[in-house]
User: What shape does this take?
Amino acid sequence: MVEGDLGRYHSVLSAVQTSEPNVVFHLGALTPVRLSFDDPYPYITANFDGTVNLVHAILGESPNSRLIVASTAEVYGWQGGDRPIREDALLSPASPYAVTKVAADQYVQMASKVYHLNGTVLRPINSYGRTGESGFLVEYLISKMLAGETCYLGTPDSVRDYMYAEDHVTAYVEAASSPKAVGQVYNVSPGNPVTNADLAKRLSNLTGFSGKIVFGSYPPGYPQRPSSQDPVYLVLDSSKITRELGWRPKFTLDQGLKLTVDVWKADRKARVVSAQTLN
Assistant: This one.
């Protein structure tokens, strides 16, 4: 473990010098979209400046290293229509967060062409399967439902494609393992679009939740965000990564959701037992 600061070039340079990497998975970023509207500056530092720092640290100290960069489906933003989006679509970011990710995405592509960086950009759709982190929609709904608390769903009609964490990780590994991926951009998406309302219904069935779901409203105290920010349809076409690298999702949406719910249930039970033991 080497601690550092993406926003400081010499800190990143020191990390690269110390680790002498063969492959770098660049996953460091500020990600809560909702917070970027009121305070975009830390997003610029972490997401864009941090990526530039990492690119040049690698070029200077480890030019043969592979760099796998986590971009995001958010770079596509407003597209219109209801067809899966391909990698050659016009980027139209809909938040300060997304703008910083577009800038980083484009910088890596430029560096791959101009400086011969061995870079690959992956644009994954929304992922889930985290434990102990309820700041993302699937995990937020699970945590509230298991606690029997009211759930809020700000954009119930928005259509998204949700990807289980293991499929997400496998895509990074496939990209790092294939010479074909150098200089390329790939969407990563399992192809199971659902409305957020349908997602909530599936989770309520899996958790046994019978409480209240408030549609069209964010939780009390939730950071305000422009309603126009949220693209109605954000689903990706991942045929390129399947065709060129052989990546395919292993888990269906229902399988991944069940696995995630089961982990949260087990964790919740363990915490209850631990509390009882302490008492």
